[in-house]
Every structure is written in structure tokens, then in C-alpha cells.
Design a protein that fits this description.
With 241 residues, this protein is of the alpha/beta class. It has a single domain, classed as Rossmann fold (3-Layer(aba) Sandwich). It has helices spanning 9-12, 20-31, 78-81, 85-92, 103-109, 112-129, 144-148, 150-170, 200-218, 236-240, and strands spanning 2-7, 37-38, 45-47, 52-55, 71-72, 96-100, 134-138, 177-179. The strands form 2 sheets. Strands 1, 2, 5, 6, 7 and 8 form a 6-stranded parallel beta sheet that branches. A two-stranded antiparallel ribbon has the order 3-4. α2 crosses α9 and α6 (112-129) packs parallel to α8. It starts with a strand and ends with a helix. The model is unreliable at 228-241 (pLDDT under 50).
Length: 241
């Protein structure tokens, strides 16, 4: 089973982050019964100092190089990923896409209607490369801008409605699509470092949203168990805040 994490700044992470991708790798190591790989064309984190995705400074040095692979970019959304997903799925032979996109689109590029159309384009394109691709999509989750910008909050809510409709329309037995639940208990004041990007507890909650969706719908792995995937003792304090 070959997993690929697809996303924006919340998925690529910045220098010094663990990332929810690291938490997902820990979960798969603990709960996935069978061979698997994490695939994708990129491995780096975003370096705020240079403004480039060139950092290898993960908070967990023991995060294996192969497991760091992803298709995520700081400032990239459905708009950017839709044109490249077919080739990427084909090249890396992905079986399951774990996708967190939408916030950056709504914040900078497209309204809810166009963002939803781009999501449909992405899903259709992924299937041209693998007709049996499975996808788990995360809705746009709470963020600091939505707390103070009512029109933006309305766009986020509207996009999530349209994304749910796209999942209902496009889900098939041959190529199932799941809409993950909002991470239970997610609080931007404690689970992020700036109101948007996840800190250690937020990373766990995002990974859990994907893990639990796959376990409940497809029987893959087990339920996300925080105690089972805590970082080693040497980094436990910084990992769980």
C-alpha cells in the first residue's frame, strides 16, 4: 500500500516542525498490518528564512528519509496540485492520497465555487493515472482568519459543503473517496502555533482524522492511539508540548 500526503503549508511544515506526516508515519508503523510505503516527489520542509522549500531540519531526526516523501507546498492549493497530480500518481504509483487543501485557495486564489471545481478536477485527474486510487480529503479546518473575517468564514463553510457534495458525487466502489471529519477537539489557540499551522498537538489531531477515517471505512490500520505513537523519550517534551 503506497500512501501520498498532498497539501499546503499545514502539510509540508516549516523547519523545526515534526509535521502531521511524521505522526502518520508513526501511526502506520504501529498499526498498519502489511507492507506500505510513503511516496511523493518531495521530502523537504519550508524554510522561512529563505522563503524556499529547502530545509531538512525536522524536529525528529529519526524520521526516515523515505517516509518524509510528500506532495505539499507552502502557498500551494487545489489550483496548483490539480495539474500535476496525474503525473505524480503515475510516477510514484500511489494507492491512497491523504489530502489537506483548500484554505490557501480560499485565502489567496479562488472562491468556494472555483475551489470546489478545482478539487473535482484533481480527483478526476488522479483517476486517470490510477483508476483504483483511494482518497481521504480533509475539509477546511478552523483557522484564525475565519474567527475575525465573517465573509471568509462563510466561504470556508460553503467550500466544505461543496467538497462534501463532490465526494458524494465522485465516490465509487472502484475508487472510493472519504471526507474525513473535522479533527475532534481541534482548538486553534492550543493546537496551532499561529492560529493556522498545527503545533505538536494539532499534528496528532490531523493525523488521527486520516487514520480513523481509513480504519472506520476501509479497515486499514487501527484507530489512532496517541499513547502508541508518542515520540521517543528524548523528544517527548517538545513533541507533546
Amino acid at each position: 500500500m503506497r500512501f501520498m500526503c498532498v497539501g499546503d503549508s499545514m502539510t509540508i511544515g516549516r523547519a523545526g516542525d515534526f509535521t502531521w506526516r511524521y505522526r502518520m508515519w508513526q501511526h502506520l508503523e504501529a498499526a498498519f498490518d502489511g507492507p506500505y510505503a510513503i511516496v511523493g516527489p518531495r521530502t523537504e520542509l519550508y524554510d522561512a528564512g529563505t522563503g524556499t522549500a529547502a530545509s531538512t531540519e525536522y524536529a525528529a531526526p529519526g524520521f526516515p528519509a523515505d517516509a518524509r516523501r510528500h506532495l505539499a507546498g507552502w502557498g500551494e492549493g487545489w489550483l496548483h496540485m490539480a495539474p500535476v497530480i496525474a503525473d505524480t500518481v503515475a510516477e510514484h504509483r500511489a494507492d491512497i492520497l491523504l489530502v489537506s487543501l483548500g484554505l490557501i485557495d480560499l485565502g489567496f486564489y479562488t472562491d468556494s465555487e472555483q475551489t470546489a471545481l478545482n478539487a473535482r478536477t484533481f480527483l478526476t485527474a488522479a483517476r486517470t493515472a490510477n483508476p483504483h486510487i483511494r482518497c481521504v480529503l480533509l475539509p477546511v479546518i478552523p483557522n484564525i482568519r475565519a474567527e475575525s473575517d465573517a465573509p471568509f468564514a462563510a466561504e470556508c463553510a460553503r467550500f466544505n459543503e461543496l467538497l462534501a457534495k463532490a465526494v458524494a458525487d465522485l465516490d465509487t466502489a472502484a475508487s472510493p473517496i472519504l471526507l474525513a471529519s473535522h479533527p475532534p477537539g481541534y482548538d486553534i489557540h492550543t493546537d496551532t502555533y499561529d492560529g493556522t499551522h498545527p503545533g505538536p498537538s494539532g499534528e496528532h489531531r490531523l493525523a488521527a482524522a486520516y487514520a480513523d477515517a481509513m480504519h472506520q471505512a476501509w479497515g486499514l490500520g487501527g484507530p489512532y492511539a496517541l499513547a502508541a505513537v508518542r515520540p521517543p523519550a528524548a523528544v517527548a517534551t517538545s513533541a507533546i508540548g
